Amino acid sequence: MKMKKMAALLLALAMLLALAACGGNNAAQDSSDPGTSGTPGTDSGTQTPAQTPESGTIELSYWYAMDGVGGQIIEKQIDAFNQTTGAEKGIHVTGVYQDWPGTNALTAAMTTDDTENMPDVIHMFSEYVNLIQDWERTVWAEDYITASGAAVSKDDLIPNTVEAYSIGGKMIGVPYAISALLLYYNQDQLTQAGFDAPPATIDEMARMLPALKEKTGAEYGLNVRLDQFEFENFIVTQGAAGTYFGNNQSGHAGQMTELSSQEAIQAFLTEWEKVIASGAYKETKDSMNEEFAQGLNSMCIMSSARIPTINDLVGDSFQWGVAAIPKVSASDVGGAYPSGSGLFMIDRGEPARVEAAWEFVQYLISADTQAMWLDGCGYVPINVHAEEAETYQSAISTEPRLSVPFDILKNTPGSVVSSFCPDNQTVNTVIQDSMLNFAGGSASKEETYAAITDGIADAFADYFRANPID
What we know:
Layout: H1 3-19, E1 58-64, H2 68-83, H3 85-89, E2 91-97, H4 104-112, E3 121-125, E4 138-139, H5 142-145, H6 159-164, E5 166-167, E6 170-171, E7 174-179, E8 181-186, H7 187-192, H8 202-215, E9 220-223, H9 228-236, H10 247-251, H11 262-277, E10 281-282, H12 288-293, E11 297-303, H13 307-314, E12 320-324, E13 339-346, H14 351-364, H15 367-371, H16 390-398, H17 403-410, H18 424-440, H19 445-466
Parallel strand pairs: 1-2, 1-3, 9-10, 9-11
Antiparallel strand pairs: 3-13, 4-13, 5-6, 7-13, 8-11, 8-12
Helix pairs in contact: 1-4, 8-11, 11-19, 18-19
């Protein structure tokens, strides 16, 4: 990479990291998802030598980005590795908690090439792939997952989670803590309003909303704030095989430099206008979990990672369920793109360290380890064999709704993926503000379309002015 581009990328990374706390388009960033309180591990970038002379053990540092329940599960995964595969192969992993979206410490280490203060494996959002894909120390997972003797292959993973972490057909990282956008619905209120099942399309949902408000105790039929995460899901699930949000397969076949989904955006806005006109739609996000659990909103659109939380809040007060988000058109493929976070390996100059890191990464994406996410967390196991694991079977028997996002992602084409979107923070703000204005009546459908497309075009122009493509 040219020095000018590297400097620009690092500057962009620093700015994004400073701005991105609990922002962006990923459901895992939602403060009501698992992992929002407590900070297990230590917040330090100090590293240990790759191999200690006394024991011959390779010491690895794993920077992870969840606290609360998610952080506790990660620590269990680390301990399980150290006691099994790690002990067998002479590898010991130390978990280091770093706040979302990755770590400011990595920015500093990248700037000075400070290998002593880099992790061997880092856990972060997929949208930050743009900022590390050209970094010379990024180790591409493709070279390891396709190697002879790999314990986990691409075929073991849900197809669209593989594509979500691929560029040009090659995996730069691996999916890890994955969720899917879902429609949550109060079945008791649907039945009371005369409906047997949740809506399959936006048009059907819009026609249901007034009855839900008028015939039940709900204040609104639907609650969702449309940020980039929700908006992009409605775009990419259109068509017979999905629709890319941007050019170059939304950045998975080269830099995404412009939108390529203008027709899909127009189609969505046309349908969503019906939802707004229903008079039973709440477009702001206050206390979505609690309001749904109290029966104030008959339906809401949220991450699958909230299933355990909603279950605890609702208890036995009413029957509820989860389903795929409504399609824009009945002929669309539907489903959801995999959101959440992945694992990326870093070459700190010692080949043994990279090999050991891959052993650890393989363990984290194995069927049994992935099934651990269902233990009070609700993330989707990305290994297709996870459903055979005892942990999975036990979790699903206790909470059957946890199987829904797994089945949705398994049956969604690999072409339905989130974008590697330049200047994600600005794009998210453009979409959020535009859709709030649309819902609030201060902007027409045409004005909203122009605000979104022009705003994103301006954001891209500014980004590539600072980060020119060679």
